[in-house]
Specification:
alpha/beta, Nucleotidyltransferase, domain 5, six-stranded mixed sheet, 18 strands, globular, disordered C terminus
C-alpha cells in the first residue's frame, strides 16, 4: 500500500492549511494547498520584525505583528476557496505576553535581549543554584530564559502565555503552553514534563499564572471572531505544532538524524543532535548545552551560539552610516578576504547586545590578541569574514564537546535555516570541523509546522508519532524539490 493510499480521507481532504512562523527578523504566513494530491507551499505574507527601544526597554512591536498576521490570514483565505482545515503557529522561545482581565496583552512583550533580567537572574541564582536548576529543568540557565523574565515583572500574578501560543489563543484557542516551548522556560521538571512545583516554590512564582502544558499536535479550539466570518475559516482547527521554531525545524528534517548533528542557522545558531534521554551533567552545563523537548519523544540537545545577529547588527550600522550592503554581495566579497586578522568568541556578552556592533567586534578582536578592524568603507567584507570564521570555529568546538558527552562520533552535519544558503559559511564549517556538511530546507520550521499538522490529523487526536511527522516532512519536501543533500567535502581540520 502506498503512502497516499494509507492516509485517511480527513487528512488529505482537499482543504488548505496555514503555518505561521514568528521570526526575530520577519514573521511569515504560509499556505499549504493540494493540487491533484501533490502539496504546494506558498509564502502568502511576510511581516518585517525586530525589537525596538521603548521608554528604556527593548520590546517587540507585537501589535504590528498581530495586525500583519491578520492581513496574512485574510490573504490565505482569499487564496484558498476550498477552505482551510487548520492553522498552527511556531516561533522563537522564551518571550511571552502578560494578559489583562480582558484577555488582551497589557503591553508589547519584552525582547529577551532586554537587560532587565541581569538583576533578576542574579537574585534567582542565590535562591536556586544554576547547577541545581540545570539538573532539575534540563535547560541551560541563561538570563534570557522565561523564568528570569517572569521574575523581573512587576505583577507576577497576571496570567501569561508564550508568543506562538498567544496567537492561537487570540484566534480562538485555549490558553496553553506547548511542551517544546514550555521546556525553554527553565521551569519544566525534565523528568515529569510538567511545571516544576519545587522550582516555582523556591522562586515564589504563582502557578495560577501558568498555562497548562499540552503536547505538540494538540487541537486547542476553532477559529472564531471576525476571521470566522470568512467562509475559509468556518471550520478551522487551531493546532499547537512544535511551537518552538527549532523543534519545528528539526521536525521538518525527513532523514534519519542518527550520527548527525544539526545546526539551525539564523539569528541564533543552535548546534546539537536528538537524544532519547536528557543529559544534565555538570560537563553539559559548562559546555553550554541544553535539553529541549522534541516534537515527539526525545530531546533536542544543543547549545545556543550567537549567530547571524552579529552580522545583521553590523549591516544595520553600515546602513545608517550610508554604506548599505546586499547580503549575497557581502558574502561573495568576504570569501575573497583571506587577510582577516583572527577569530573572536561569538558568545562574548558584548556581542549579544544591540548597537555599535562593528566597534564591539573590533574590541573583541583586540581582546583576543588580534588587530582590530577599522569601521570604514571597504572593510565591511573583512568584518563579515571574521564573523563567518568565528562562527565556524565555534561550531567545531561545540561539536567536539558534543561527541565527548555522547561518547560517540558525529559523522555529518545538517545545516538548516537561513544559514543553509550561505555557501561560504557552509564551506568554512566543513573545513573547521573536518566533517561533510549537507544543507536542508531554508524554511524547515514551516515544513515541520505543516508536517505536525498533517500527522496530528492522521492521529485523530492521539499521540503524535515521529515516523508520521518524518513521512509528511518527506512528502512536503519531495514535491517541492527541497531538502536535497549537497555534501561539501571537508578540508584540512583546523
Amino acid at each position: 500500500m502506498s503512502f497516499q493510499e494509507g492516509i485517511d480521507a480527513p487528512v488529505r481532504d482537499g482543504r488548505a492549511r496555514v503555518a505561521i512562523d514568528l521570526g526575530a527578523e520577519s514573521c511569515r504566513v504560509s499556505l499549504l494547498r493540494w493540487h491533484q494530491e501533490s502539496p504546494e507551499i506558498t509564502l502568502i505574507h511576510r511581516i518585517p520584525n525586530g525589537p525596538v527601544h521603548v521608554d528604556g526597554s527593548l520590546r517587540w512591536p507585537f501589535d504590528k505583528i498581530l495586525a500583519g498576521l491578520e492581513d496574512g490570514l485574510r490573504k490565505a483565505a482569499a487564496s484558498a476557496p476550498e477552505g482551510i482545515a487548520s492553522i498552527a503557529v511556531d516561533g522563537w522561545a522564551v518571550d511571552y505576553v502578560r494578559l489583562g482581565a480582558d484577555g488582551l496583552p497589557v503591553g508589547n512583550p519584552h525582547c529577551y535581549r532586554d537587560e532587565r533580567t541581569i538583576a533578576s537572574k542574579e537574585a534567582a541564582d542565590r535562591v536556586a543554584l544554576p547547577e541545581w536548576v540545570f539538573q532539575h529543568a534540563g535547560a541551560q540557565p541563561l538570563r534570557i530564559n522565561t523564568v528570569y523574565q517572569l521574575l523581573a515583572d512587576a505583577d507576577r500574578n497576571a496570567p501569561w502565555v508564550n508568543l506562538p501560543e498567544y496567537v492561537l489563543y487570540r484566534l480562538g484557542g485555549r490558553r496553553v503552553a506547548e511542551y517544546t516551548n514550555a521546556t525553554h522556560t527553565g521551569l519544566v521538571d525534565i523528568k515529569t514534563g510538567g511545571w516544576s512545583e519545587e522550582l516555582l516554590e523556591k522562586l515564589d512564582l504563582p502557578k495560577g499564572a501558568f498555562p497548562p502544558i499540552v503536547p505538540a499536535g494538540t487541537v486547542i479550539g476553532k477559529v472564531n471572531g471576525p476571521l470566522a466570518e470568512l467562509q475559509a475559516f468556518r471550520d478551522t482547527d487551531l493546532i499547537v505544532p512544535a511551537c518552538h521554531d527549532t523543534a519545528s525545524a528539526i521536525a521538518g528534517i525527513q532523514s534519519d538524524l542518527d550520527g548527525t548533528a544539526y545546526i539551525c542557522s539564523g539569528t541564533w545558531s543552535l548546534v546539537g543532535t536528538l537524544i532519547p534521554e536528557p543529559i544534565t551533567t555538570r560537563e553539559a552545563m559548562d559546555a553550554g548545552y541544553t535539553n529541549q523537548g522534541a516534537a515527539c519523544e526525545g530531546f533536542c540537545f544543543h547549545t545556543n551560539v550567537n549567530g547571524m545577529w552579529i552580522l545583521k547588527q553590523c549591516m544595520e550600522s553600515w546602513r545608517k552610516a550610508g554604506r548599505p550592503w546586499a547580503l549575497p554581495e557581502l558574502i561573495a566579497r568576504a570569501a575573497e578576504r583571506n587577510d582577516f586578522p583572527g577569530t573572536v568568541n561569538v558568545d562574548a556578552p558584548p556581542l549579544m547586545l544591540d548597537g555599535d556592533m562593528p566597534e564591539r567586534l573590533s574590541e573583541q578582536l583586540r581582546a583576543s590578541g588580534f588587530a582590530g578592524v577599522e569601521d570604514c568603507a571597504g572593510n565591511e567584507p573583512l568584518f563579515a569574514r571574521v564573523i563567518f570564521e568565528s562562527l565556524a570555529h565555534r561550531y567545531a568546538t561545540a561539536l567536539r564537546s558534543l561527541e565527548q558527552m555522547l561518547n560517540n562520533s558525529i559523522r555529518r552535519i545538517h545545516i538548516l535555516g537561513g544559514g543553509s544558503l550561505n555557501q561560504l559559511l557552509t564551506r568554512l564549517t566543513a573545513e573547521h570541523t573536518g566533517l561533510p556538511v549537507e544543507t536542508g530546507n531554508v524554511e524547515s520550521s514551516t515544513v515541520g509546522n505543516f508536517a505536525v499538522q498533517m500527522a496530528s490529523a492522521e492521529s485523530k487526536g492521539g499521540t503524535l508519532r515521529r515516523e508520521a511527522v518524518r513521512r509528511w516532512a518527506g512528502e512536503l519536501c519531495e514535491k517541492r524539490e527541497c531538502g536535497e543533500i549537497r555534501p561539501v567535502e571537508p578540508g584540512k581540520m583546523i
